[in-house]
Amino acid sequence: MLMKVALCEDVLCDQEHVKLLVQSWAQKTGHEVQLRIFADTHKLLGAIDNGFEAFDCYLLDIEMREKHEGFDLARIIRKQSEHIPIVFITSHKEMAFCGYDV
Predict the structure, then answer these.
(1) What CATH number does residue 8 fall under?
(2) What SS3 state is found at 94?
(3) Domains in the chain: how many in total?
């Protein structure tokens, strides 16, 4: 079964790191994963809002350089679906537990 995953991360080296982690997980677990990478939230929101993409899981950077940061983006996604898995990515320990509200 194909799992469609969206990664929203604005730092290129972090995109590559997460991509390798996802590929490693998929290989170890036998899952087939299609990973789409978005460098900003507006492009991901455009793909979602226009119905171009439907994802099975979202990997969201918490701290982005633009208006819709990870938590804001997650709230928008939650309005569309309460059940879709959202995984937050951060290097800030103090922000790690804030995602439980979403």
Answers:
(1) 3.40.50.2300
(2) helix
(3) 1
